[in-house]
Specification:
By secondary structure, the protein is mainly alpha-helical. It has one domain (30-108). It has 7 helices and no strands. The protein has helices at residues 3-11, 14-20, 23-31, 33-41, 51-70, 76-101, 103-108. This is Mitochondrial pyruvate carrier. It is found in: Mitochondrion inner membrane. Its main location: mitochondrion. It comes from Suhomyces tanzawaensis NRRL Y-17324.
Length: 112
């Protein structure tokens, strides 16, 4: 049996279709909008970053990464979603800190 045939048989099996029709699948899929937006925002001006919101999202993703492995069965899709979000939010957090507290940024800004 070819690899493609095995893959399509698995993809369209009752077990796979049953999984796709659960919140165990659709919850993480709909949640992926958050990390996608965070990754796209990494190129935007750091003035637009909210420090408190970024800190909240860092904590939120840590909690849900832990939760995704604590439930039964483990939800690796949810873990992946929050892992990507954690990395993106940490990137945003570092950009925010650098922009607001770095001596390099302060030297560039005109004095008032």
């Amino acid at each position: 049996m070819s690899g493609f045939k095995k893959f399509t048989d698995f993809l369209f099996s009752k077990q796979s279709l049953r999984y796709v029709c659960t919140t165990h699948f659709w919850g993480p899929v709909s949640n992926f909008g958050i990390p996608v937006a965070a990754v796209l925002d990494l190129k935007k001006d750091p003035d637009l970053i909210s420090g408190p919101m970024t800190a909240s999202l860092i904590g939120y993703s840590l909690v849900f990464m832990r939760y995704s492995l604590a439930v039964s069965p483990k939800n690796y899709l949810l873990f992946g979603c929050h892992f990507v979000n954690e990395i993106a939010q940490l990137g945003q957090g570092f950009r925010w800190v650098k922009h607001h507290y770095s001596s390099e940024t302060k030297a560039i800004e005109p004095s008032t």
